[in-house]
Amino acid sequence: MVTTDAKNPFLRMLAYIPYAFVNIRAVYVVFVCWRKCRWWFRFQQRASVILSCHSRPDSLSRQMRQWQRRSVVAGIGSFLAVLAFEVADWLRWFDQDPRHWDMSYTNALEPLPIWYPVWLYIVIWNVFCAFSYFLSQQLYISLVLYGCISKALLSDIKTNLRAESKEFNSDKMSSPLKCVAGTADADYTSLYERIKKSKMRYMDILTFSHDLNHTYGNALFVIYGMDLITVCGFVAAVVANEERFLSAYLANAISVVVFGAYLCCLIPMVGAYEETVKVNFALHKLMEQLQSVFGAFAYQKEGLESYVAHFITLIRDQPVVFSGAELFHVTRSFLAGTITFVISSAIVLREVMQRTEDNHQVLATCNPVNTTAALLASAANSSWLTDFCTNSNHTAI
Question: Do the domain assignments include residue 73?
Answer without folding.
Answer: yes
